[in-house]
Amino acid sequence: MGVMRNIAPRPDVPVPKIYEFPVYNRAYLYYNKYYNNLFFISLAHIGLRGLYMMILHGKTDIGQRRKVNQDTFLLQRPAPDAALCVICDGMGGVVGGAEASCMACDAFCLSLREQLEEGLSGLNTLCSDAAAVEARRACIEATIPDALVEAVEAANAAVYSAAENDPALQGMGTTLVALFVWGDYACAVNVGDSRLYAITAEGARQLSHDHSYVQYLIDMGKLTPEEAKQSTNRNIITRAVGTTPQIDSDIIRIEPELLAQATFLLCSDGLSGMLEDSEIAAIVNGGLTTEEAVDALVARANEMGGTDNITVVLCRK
User: Fold this and answer.
1) 6, 14, 180, 197: least buried by Cβ within 10 Å?
2) What is the Cα–Cα distance from 214 to 165, expressed in whole angstroms?
3) First to last CA, the chain
4) Is 182 within the bounds of a domain?
5) How far apart are CA 137 and CA 189, in angstroms?
6) 166: left (phi > 0), else alpha (psi -120 to 50), else beta?
């Protein structure tokens, strides 16, 4: 259940609303009947190889201490050279968290599909015309960010409405991080403290910004990143899908140069809370296949205590 806390205001840092929750996770089998082409085949593992050698793999694990898994994750191909990766980490009790993460993922993907339905056909036509590459990219750049924001708003409305209409679900909500790749264009959206990393030979770079109480204190200069890892408040988030009628989301635009050289990792805090960024990068860059790297990350998080459930998705081109 959400817990509101008052924070002393500071002029240059907006005071956030705060929600505290135990982080459970749940594997979620999602099948996109609209496109009717293989998205994934197991509750725990997802693998997909498409055009342009785009490889996706994901896994969710209950960890060592939780009795329920309330994460939802999804891999999807909305177009031949496109990929969508989503992780939602639910909150709000054993029932509410699972409902929130599944509902948000469904609503997010449905909204995104509906917004891009006409554009998919047009852009795929442009894709076969070399002279229209720039027009194709301009159209994508103008469409995708707004579509991701609207999809988050649709997810928020679905979860909030369900919680308002069912007393058993009141207080539920979820994080949401999503990566959309289309050819040489990539854009992401984030709400909460699930993360998106770009991993190169230089290491792991966090692209998302945590909407959490400890990150708020770091931004204010009252806490160091090292202190935040030990804080008893690290499970408190300041923004979540479905807890308020309106939602703000962060859009992350990814440069083509970074897209070409990086492996992208999405995860719940069951991974990022257990492993240092340097260890995450070392495993991903350790010469393993995409599936092996995902398995190794989950296994290592469990070795470190597995205090939360762990969900990891890797995207490589």
Assistant:
1) 6
2) 32
3) 40
4) yes
5) 19
6) beta
What digits encode the pLDDT tens for the residues 174-224?
A: 999 999 998 889 999 999 999 999 999 999 999 999 999 999 999 999 999
| Domain containing residue 264: CATH number | 3.60.40.10
- Per the structure, how many domains does the chain have? 1
Torsion angle of the four alpha carbons 111, 114, 118, 122, in this order, in degrees rounded to the nearest 10: 50
List the domain range (segments joined by +) for residue 180.
19-316
Q: Is residue 4 part of a domain?
A: no
Question: Does residue 55 form part of some domain?
Answer: yes
Tell me if 3 is assigned to some domain.
Answer: no
pLDDT in tens, 26-57: 333 333 332 222 233 233 444 544 445 678 99
Q: What is the pTM of this model?
A: 0.83
